[in-house]
Amino acid sequence: MDAPDAPLAALREQIDEVDSQILDALTRRLELVSQVGEVKGRYGLPIYAPDRERAMIARRREEAQGRGLSPDFIEDVLRRCMRESYTHEKNMGFTQQAPDLGPVVIVGGAGQMGALFGRMLTLSGYQVRTLEKEDWDRADEVLDGAGMVLVSVPIQQTVEVIGRLPALPPYCLLVDLTSTKVAPLEAMLAAHQGPVLGLHPMFGPGVDSFAKQVVAYVPGRDPDASEWLLDQMRLWGARVHEVEAHDHDHAMGLIQALRHFSTFAYGLHLASEDRPLDELLALSSPIYRLELIMVGRLFAQDPELYADIIMASADNVALIERYHQRFGQALALVEQQDRAGFIRAFREIGEWFGPYADRFLTESTSLLAHADTTR
User: Which Pfam family would be a valid example here (predicted)?
Assistant: First the structure.
């Protein structure tokens, strides 16, 4: 029987040649993306066009099916290409939605989120200044003529910092980026007689672009005066979602405070059990590995930030206490070996999720496949 080395080498050489052609095609694609970004910037079009994306994905899936390729595989490749495209387009700049606006002052602009907004506003043609804690003795100078003041400081300092602001021009838009909204909005309305807007970016400062990212906004005073900023973020590719301040804070209790606390408690339990992490990873299924990844990533970040998020309000503490009680109810079903009660509760929860349960199953299957390939 012939040795496989020679035919394998020949086939691998052909694969290498195809890979090189793929790189050439991807390079050309990004060149075209740059041209698209220039056109969008010139005509004030958002970098994220959901209808175009859906139609393109549907066509390519159909073409893949006709060629005997997996449509899911082709969609995965294209979505990764599009993510890179959004990042690339961002660097082409954006149409300035408020060309007559005075300087934008970011209080805390040296922080990660403040710096992210500073970069995006600069790419959009605005003059950006920063005001840091060592600059308060010249705050009047930095804030002179400001068209917008954006407060991006730690949660526990936000209200105090807003209260320290000197009198702003009456036309100046005052905005905060805090993950709670009731207290900061009240503080801004008390400190400034002009337009006020509350923002909460639902993402971290490490994102490649604003494409598909959600920014929650809470109107404060004179909403027409802040519409340019919402339009500017839409051009960046963001999805802006209006919400009332109290509704926002209650939702954040579930989405952020409770979730982060649960992750913290699970990490505390894992560390206390003290099993070798390498062993857990070696024995893990894709979904458990993904869970470990989501738990572990929390502890690679700033503990002060998460302490502030979890302990931001008495409402958060009350929510966590209710979670603790329900955890005890669930534990009682297991302790009592109440299999029928467990199944009944399981089905009731499934009914609450409704059609989202099947949708989440499909989405998680795709995520798990990706996680398994990166092991």
Answer: PDH_C
